[in-house]
Q: What sequence folds into this?
């Protein structure tokens, strides 16, 4: 059953299986395992980024397409649901309609960008996507009458998902089950289903063609595969998944704005997560997203503890000062690329093969 | 000579500012193995790539089975049941041998009897069926590349220097495989530099120089004429033995 759910694409490493299981359990029971708002926010962000990074890996890792427009699709999802809930009221119909419009807009944009520019060389395609994404971000900022401009829009979600909604009178496992927890599980199960769907796609005959195109597009053409068609479909699928990740983010944060969905910094984070986890493997998206977001949220705290613990030593407490967390995050990234050039997943699988 | 399956008339191909093919006239008879010989840089690989549509011809006509295919998109040409084995082999290294074969089988999953026939030609492929193709040796990759081209019955197979960098023992196996393909009356256009290999298989031969065909005839006649070999190729068959 597990093999079927994972589309036959098993982790193929004991350590990796353990890590994935640990992440799955931690995310599945996050509201009951951890107290406070930061852990559940972190868990939800990991779920959202697993989908976003997996969708980007579908492009970069499986098809060999370098795109910088992925946050644009994330933003379309966020704005689609957010603006619909803001403008048409906090109902499921508004959210559904907003999502449907966002999916159509995302797919059409991905189709047009793909069809017009996937024939050009990779570097030119990357530049085109960068230009389109920048134009979209500027547009979202300038159409302030509709989008809220740089301030974005805060909105209310359907009543069932609001923190004030209590589902059961008695706490479950010591936790009050409210709309916030329901929101979390909406995000969690959506992420799980989308990841399994992505696994199904990459392990299908269609996914094998994408991998063949990534490795040698001329050869794939000579076997009779229309490379532009397959790349365009992959582009649309990845865009669709990114739109859904954006919608999940909007539902969870109850806000949409350029900084949270369209920023180029998010694009860089996605790239780092893909590289750290391992390109061309969806499990890499899980590991990369979990590690990166945990580091983003907890490295500063860990460094504060380490700095205090080494207070009596010279220099080290200064190096470990929490304000320098970005420096250490950079160091961690360089070390991971140096020691795991094929990503953590690639390295763990190599180790398993070498046993 | 049988009726032509493929013919090129006055085909010119430019790659950037370079004029590579300068009026190629070539006929590939149906059911025969035609060898395209010539020194490095004569335009042999460009001829195959032009036939496959990977580089569009700038002038001339390419006719396959009665229809013009010059300038058509590569996938459309491949769908006419033309198999192509490039010089670089082009195996998909991250995919298994089985997945490589399945990708090449465009009409559906590979036929079991056909696979058995291929395993008979290239036994190593059966042994490494579930192994990533990137882990195969050079010779095994070449076998896979050829096997992919014949996983389904093809009207024509274009093969570019299959013996390049391959160990002599594997070349012997390859000769046996090509003879088997010939027995099945597969039409093959083979680009080759190894004259002994080419002479043992070819029915007809064309020799290229400077982007043109400078000699056409039977392989038997060329193999028997060492003066002609030396004039066309700079080296006779005797020197290869």
A:
């Amino acid at each position: 059953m597990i093999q079927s759910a994972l589309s036959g694409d098993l982790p193929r490493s004991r350590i990796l299986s353990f890590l994935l299981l640990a992440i799955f359990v931690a995310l599945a029971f996050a509201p009951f395992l951890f107290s406070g708002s930061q852990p559940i926010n972190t868990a939800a962000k990991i779920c959202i980024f697993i989908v976003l990074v997996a969708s980007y890996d579908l492009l970069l890792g499986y098809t060999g397409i370098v795109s910088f427009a992925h946050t644009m699709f994330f933003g379309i999802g966020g704005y689609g649901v957010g603006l619909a809930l803001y403008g048409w009221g906090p109902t499921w119909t508004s959210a559904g309609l907003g999502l449907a419009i966002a999916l159509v807009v995302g797919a059409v944009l991905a189709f047009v960008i793909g069809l017009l520019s996937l024939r050009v060389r990779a570097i030119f395609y990357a530049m085109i996507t960068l230009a389109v994404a920048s134009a979209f971000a500027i547009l979202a900022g300038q159409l302030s009458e509709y989008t809220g401009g740089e301030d974005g829009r805060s909105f209310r979600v359907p009543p069932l998902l609001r923190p004030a909604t209590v589902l059961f009178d008695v706490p479950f496992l010591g936790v009050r089950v409210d709309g916030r927890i329901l929101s979390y599980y909406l995000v969690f199960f959506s992420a799980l289903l989308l990841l399994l769907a992505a696994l199904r796609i990459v392990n299908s005959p269609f996914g094998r063609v994408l991998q063949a195109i990534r490795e040698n597009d001329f050869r794939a053409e000579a076997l009779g595969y229309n490379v532009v068609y397959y790349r365009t479909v992959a582009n649309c699928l990845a865009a669709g998944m990114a739109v859904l990740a954006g919608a999940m983010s909007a539902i969870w944060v109850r806000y949409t704005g350029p900084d949270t969905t369209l920023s180029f910094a998010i694009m860089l984070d996605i790239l780092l997560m893909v590289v750290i986890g391992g390109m061309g493997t969806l499990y890499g998206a899980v590991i990369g997203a979990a590690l990166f977001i945990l580091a983003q949220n907890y490295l500063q705290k860990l460094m504060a503890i380490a700095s205090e613990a080494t207070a009596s030593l010279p220099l080290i407490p200064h190096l470990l000062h929490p304000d320098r967390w970005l420096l250490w995050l950079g160091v961690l990234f360089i070390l991971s690329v140096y020691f795991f050039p094929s990503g953590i997943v690639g390295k763990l699988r190599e180790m398993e093969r070498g046993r | 000579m049988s009726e032509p399956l493929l013919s090129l008339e006055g085909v010119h191909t430019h790659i950037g500012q370079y004029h590579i093919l300068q009026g190629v006239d070539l006929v590939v008879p149906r059911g025969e193995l035609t060898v395209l010989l010539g020194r490095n840089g004569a335009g042999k690989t460009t001829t195959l790539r032009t036939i496959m549509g990977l580089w569009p011809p700038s002038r001339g006509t390419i006719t396959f089975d009665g229809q013009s295919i010059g300038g058509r998109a590569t996938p459309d040409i491949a769908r006419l049941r033309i198999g192509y084995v490039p010089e670089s082999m082009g195996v998909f290294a991250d995919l298994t041998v089985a997945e490589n074969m399945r990708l090449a089988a465009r009409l559906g999953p590979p036929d079991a009897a056909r696979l058995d026939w291929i395993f008979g030609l290239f036994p190593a492929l059966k042994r490494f069926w579930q192994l990533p193709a990137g882990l195969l040796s050079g010779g095994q990759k070449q076998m896979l590349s050829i096997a992919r081209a014949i996983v389904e019955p093809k009207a024509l197979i274009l093969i570019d220097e299959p013996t390049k960098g391959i160990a002599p023992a594997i070349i012997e196996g390859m000769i046996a495989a090509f003879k088997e393909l010939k027995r099945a009356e597969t039409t093959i256009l083979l680009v080759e530099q190894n004259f002994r290999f080419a002479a043992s298989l070819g029915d007809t031969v064309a020799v290229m120089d400077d982007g043109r065909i400078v000699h056409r005839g039977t392989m038997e006649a060329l193999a028997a004429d060492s003066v002609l070999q030396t004039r066309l190729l700079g080296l006779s068959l005797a020197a290869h033995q």
Remarks:
- The mean pLDDT of chain A is 93.
- Strands of chain A lie at 153-154, 255-256.
- DSSP finds 18 helices and two strands in chain A.
